[in-house]
From TrEMBL:
Functional description taken from the UniProt entry: Broad-specificity nucleoside monophosphate (NMP) kinase that catalyzes the reversible transfer of the terminal phosphate group between nucleoside triphosphates and monophosphates. Has also ATPase activity. Involved in the late cytoplasmic maturation steps of the 40S ribosomal particles, specifically 18S rRNA maturation. While NMP activity is not required for ribosome maturation, ATPase activity is. Associates transiently with small ribosomal subunit protein uS11. ATP hydrolysis breaks the interaction with uS11.
Organism: Hippocampus comes
Keyword Nucleotide-binding annotated: yes
Reactions performed catalytically: ATP + H2O = ADP + phosphate + H(+); AMP + ATP = 2 ADP
PANTHER family for this protein: ADENYLATE KINASE ISOENZYME 6, POS9-ACTIVATING FACTOR FAP7-RELATED
Similarity remark: Belongs to the adenylate kinase family. AK6 subfamily.
Oligomeric and partner information: Monomer and homodimer. Interacts with small ribosomal subunit protein uS11. Not a structural component of 43S pre-ribosomes, but transiently interacts with them by binding to uS11. Interacts with COIL (via C-terminus).
Annotated region (NMPbind), positions in chain: 38-61
Keywords in alphabetical order: ATP-binding, Cytoplasm, Kinase, Nucleotide-binding, Nucleus, Ribosome biogenesis, rRNA processing, Transferase
Name assigned to this protein: Adenylate kinase isoenzyme 6
Molecular function as annotated in GO: AMP kinase activity; ATP binding; ATP hydrolysis activity
HAMAP family tied to this protein: Adenylate_kinase_AK6
Subcellular location: Cytoplasm; Nucleus, Nucleoplasm; Nucleus, Cajal body
EC number: 2.7.4.3
Amino acid sequence: MPQFLDNILLHFVAWTPGVGKTTLGKELAQRTGLTYVNIGELAQEGDLYDGYDQEYQCPILDEDRVVDELDEKMTHGGVIVDYHGCDLFPERWFHIVFVLRTDNTQLYTRLESRGYTGKKLQDNVQCEIFQTIYEEAIEAYKEELVHQLPSNTPEDLESNLEQIVQWTKQWIKDHN
Ligand code: DAT
């Protein structure tokens, strides 16, 4: 893995799972040799939690411990981070941010099939409707680093992968 390649934050921001971050992130890691890190899995493995959210029925992430845990790896570079929140990460960690977008009806179906119901389901879909994801990303990072990609079909997935792989190659060339 090239050490001089900076880190990629793959889609991102509060409360929109189901858009295809994991699918894209894992495949991208395979094609580029970058390291894929799923914050949800990292937290589960290290028990990096600080209480339980009754309303959303999920454990609350201990953000400081997550950042401490990842900091050394991020300093080396070449990491794809998959998470649905943005304000916890230091800005210096990321060289590029991709926000995946899925049409609301599709998102609704994907989340429902994952067992989401009630307020959790509604809030996640609303977040996509109101563009919360993208807006939070450009508040946290320089606008030119944030890229939106459609993630509705398998063709979108392939074209996103091709674009990001191309971008990665170019980045390596420019910084070598
Ligand atoms: P996330 O990691 O954002 O929660 P995921 O990668 O687990 O999302 O994908 C959620 C579901 O959607 C899963 O069943 C795979 C499917 N999916 C992902 N990307 C897709 C795409 N571009 N087109 C159609 N389905 C997709």
